[in-house]
């Protein structure tokens, strides 16, 4: 075979007169280019490491300080106040150096020390400035004088053209809230959910905890906050994600969709080639620190992105039950999109059958964790199974070339529902759920991502996905026939099949994992729809926060659907702090409950005032969560400390066992602003979603797309007789319209008396 011959780096023949070596010039060239590329990468990483290490100063500023100190030697002005003379007199081997040499060395050493001192002074000044959060509590559109001064100082001390990791050392640490504040906010959050007797019992538990056990636990937590960069994130990752033994499919992993209205090409291999190449470009920028930091109202924030494996040179592709290894480099460079298309097309054209046990092998990652761990030790710890498993786990990411078309289609009912379920769980054996993410390519050219949750939260993956889609559509592009641009290199070595030897006992474990995962997947009741009646633009004209507007609509929908209020989870980011991840906003407040009850009463006079009061309360809760004064992460860490110390706390046990029957999250859009959606309104992403958190509750992800569209992803369980995702979607839409009607003049009865119109996948149902 030609590819096998080209893969041989050298040949040799033993002759009577010696050994005859024949070296492949192509292979030697590739080895040389790979070495050059590796050294270039190391040099760039070293340079960027230096730039980030001395930020907010620059290496050139060191030379300025040195020149200033050297100049003082000639103008006879001692800027060091005698320190350079002290250094000069204490230099080692000073008797062997001339006076001038010692003077120059002392000036350089003092200048370097002064330069480092100034760097740390600037850095801690910037950290102190970034610890100020008063600006976030100011009314929208208004800025106090103190905030204006603060903003000018931040810009002045931030330097120019920061790299991705430049602000890492300047971000403040997440503060530990006081126990009194946390308990007060907690009791306030559960008051609308408990009757008087239940609330009094909770008050007694909280009071007992505060008086007898809280102080010891709080001291330990404060000590950890001094030692660790973030007192929450490592425990959150370990105990919420990594130590769980239940399946991560549906329960933990989440998904992100492709562009809603545009499919750049309908050729599966070509689309995958462009997207994979764009991912490699993103990874290269990430590794080199060349991505710009994420900004929030002119404040640069560190992008939280964990890298456990860097510079992986291959990916693993799954297609019709077979695993293929594809190398991503040739000649010291990334494969071009056209070369990747060729490789993926070869896999699509491959008609070989799966090996015994190979078809549903990935179901081990979809089922319960203990059987997978036991099977890993018993069947995948040696031999070719270990080699193949290592190839999967060390791959840059996992790619599935699916064989069933998916995507949003206005002409098809429930197309978003099917698309979401495919991304969330697929067939339960065609995604490797343990990988950081599985890229999914469909035969009609649509794409999507299934993401393992422990390493990053949705905004981080959304940041990457925005870059990839923009690069795919507006920079790489396609030919008129839909192929990737560029020459086709047919001399690339073919993708190689991963080999497995899976005994019958292991196949039984795989089947058991598959059946348990399929039961979970079949129970997911999903409904997705596009709310196009109005969007962020109209909500802002009502002088209220779009997020608060939607959250109050969710509370109204929840009450209409279940006739009771429930504990509600909304995810908030804490990226203003070093290694920050998330905090919980408890959206079901007393103010929200009062507003919902007013909406259901016949008296309409106070509805708008109650809405504004509830919206302001929600905004304040969100701001507190963002600025480190949330409730749940503090209580979670106190609970972990209590377990370490063997302290029994009925209060903490009660708090941590409360179910979140309504779990919500907003996935941000347009983080990078690479595409002007006013100019290209069809190039918008459908957002993403997640599975239900409670057996009898809802999971709701919503994405505010531009000015006139909001997408909703709703999940629940068929096994619950109390929930119905489609029904809840109807309640959400009705609630959105009812709240919007509050802002119309009283004599305009159109919206309040209008028939309910439900927009499902582009069709209107009266």
Automatic annotation (TrEMBL):
Span of domain Choline/carnitine acyltransferase: 174-734
KW Protein biosynthesis (keyword) present: no
Major site of localization recorded for this protein: mitochondrion
Residues that span the membrane, as ranges: 61-82, 103-122
Membrane topology: Multi-pass membrane protein
Enzyme Commission number(s) from the entry: 2.3.1.21
Active site: 453
UniProtKB keywords: Acyltransferase, Fatty acid metabolism, Lipid metabolism, Membrane, Mitochondrion, Mitochondrion outer membrane, Transferase, Transmembrane, Transmembrane helix, Transport
Pfam families: Carn_acyltransf, CPT_N
Pathway in which the depicted protein is active: Lipid metabolism; fatty acid beta-oxidation
Protein name as it appears in the record: Carnitine O-palmitoyltransferase 1, muscle isoform
Biological source species: Astatotilapia calliptera
């Amino acid at each position: 075979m030609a590819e096998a011959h080209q893969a041989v780096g050298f040949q040799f023949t033993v002759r009577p007169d010696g050994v005859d070596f024949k070296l492949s010039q192509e292979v030697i060239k590739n080895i040389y280019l790979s070495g050059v590329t590796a050294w270039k990468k190391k040099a760039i990483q070293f340079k960027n490491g230096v730039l980030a290490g001395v930020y907010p100063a620059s290496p050139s500023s060191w030379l300025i300080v040195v020149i200033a100190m050297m100049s003082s030697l000639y103008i006879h002005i001692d800027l060091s106040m005698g320190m350079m003379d002290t250094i000069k007199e204490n230099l080692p081997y000073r008797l062997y150096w001339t006076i001038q040499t010692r003077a120059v060395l002392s000036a350089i050493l003092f200048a370097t020390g002064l330069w480092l001192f100034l760097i740390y002074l600037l850095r801690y000044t910037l950290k102190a400035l970034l610890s100020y959060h008063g600006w976030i509590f100011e009314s929208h559109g208004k800025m106090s004088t103190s905030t204006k001064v603060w903003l000018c100082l931040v810009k002045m001390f931030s330097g120019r053209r920061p790299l991705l990791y430049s602000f890492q050392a300047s971000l403040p640490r997440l503060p530990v809230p006081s126990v009194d504040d946390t308990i007060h906010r907690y009791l306030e959050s559960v008051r609308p959910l408990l009757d008087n007797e239940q609330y009094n019992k909770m008050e007694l538990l909280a009071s007992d905890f505060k008086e007898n056990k809280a102080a010891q636990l709080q001291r330990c937590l404060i000590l950890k906050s001094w030692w660790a960069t973030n007192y929450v994130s490592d425990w959150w990752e370990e105990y919420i994600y990594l130590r769980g033994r239940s399946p991560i499919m549906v329960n933990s992993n989440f998904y992100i969709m492709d562009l809603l209205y545009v499919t750049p090409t309908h050729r599966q291999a070509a689309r995958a080639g462009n997207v994979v190449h764009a991912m490699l470009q993103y990874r290269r920028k990430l590794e080199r620190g060349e991505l710009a930091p994420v900004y929030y109202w002119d404040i640069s924030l560190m992008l939280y992105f964990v890298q456990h494996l860097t510079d992986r040179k291959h990916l693993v592709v799954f297609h019709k039950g077979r695993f293929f290894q594809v190398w991503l480099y040739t000649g010291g460079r990334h494969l071009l999109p056209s070369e990747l298309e060729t490789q993926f097309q070869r896999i699509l054209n491959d008609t070989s059958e799966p090996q015994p046990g190979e078809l549903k092998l990935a179901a081990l990652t979809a089922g319960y964790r203990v059987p997978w761990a036991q099977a890993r030790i018993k069947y995948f710890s040696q031999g070719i199974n270990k080699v193949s498993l290592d190839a999967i786990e060390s791959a840059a990411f996992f790619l599935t070339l699916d064989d069933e078309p998916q995507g949003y289609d206005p002409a098809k009912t429930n197309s978003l529902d099917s698309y979401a379920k495919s991304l969330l769980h697929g067939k339960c054996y065609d995604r490797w759920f343990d990988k950081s993410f599985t890229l999914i390519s469909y035969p009609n050219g649509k794409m999507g991502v299934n993401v393992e949750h422990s390493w990053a939260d949705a905004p981080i993956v959304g940041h990457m996905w925005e870059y990839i889609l923009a690069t795919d559509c507006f920079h790489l592009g396609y030919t008129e026939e839909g192929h990737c641009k560029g020459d086709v290199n047919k001399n690339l070595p073919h993708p190689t099949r991963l080999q497995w030897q899976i005994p019958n006992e292991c196949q039984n474990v795989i089947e058991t994992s598959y059946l348990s995962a399929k039961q979970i997947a079949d129970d997911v009741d999903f409904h997705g729809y596009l709310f196009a009646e109005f969007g962020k633009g109209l909500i802002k004209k009502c002088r209220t926060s779009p997020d608060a507007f939607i959250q109050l609509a969710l509370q109204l929908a929840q009450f209409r659907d279940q006739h009771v209020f429930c504990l509600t989870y909304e995810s908030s980011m804490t990226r203003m702090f070093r290694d920050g991840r998330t905090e919980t906003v408890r959206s079901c407040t007393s103010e929200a409950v009062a507003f919902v009850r007013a909406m259901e009463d016949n008296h309409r006079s106070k509805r708008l005032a109650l809405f504004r009061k509830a919206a302001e309360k929600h905004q304040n809760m969100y701001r507190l969560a963002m600025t480190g004064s949330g409730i749940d992460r503090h209580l979670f860490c106190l609970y972990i400390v209590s377990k370490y110390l063997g302290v029994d706390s009925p209060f903490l046990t009660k708090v941590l066992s409360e179910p979140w029957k309504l779990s919500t999250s907003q996935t941000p859009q347009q983080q990078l602003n690479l595409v002007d959606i006013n100019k290209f309104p069809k190039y918008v992403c459908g957002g993403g979603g997640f599975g239900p958190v409670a057996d009898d509750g809802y999971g709701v992800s919503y994405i505010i797309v531009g000015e006139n569209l909001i997408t909703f992803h709703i999940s629940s369980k068929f096994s619950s007789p109390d929930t119905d995702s489609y029904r809840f979607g109807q309640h959400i839409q009705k609630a959105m319209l009812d709240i919007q009607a509050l802002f119309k003049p009283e004599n305009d009865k159109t919206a309040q008396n209008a028939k309910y119109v439900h927009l499902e996948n582009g069709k209107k149902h009266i």
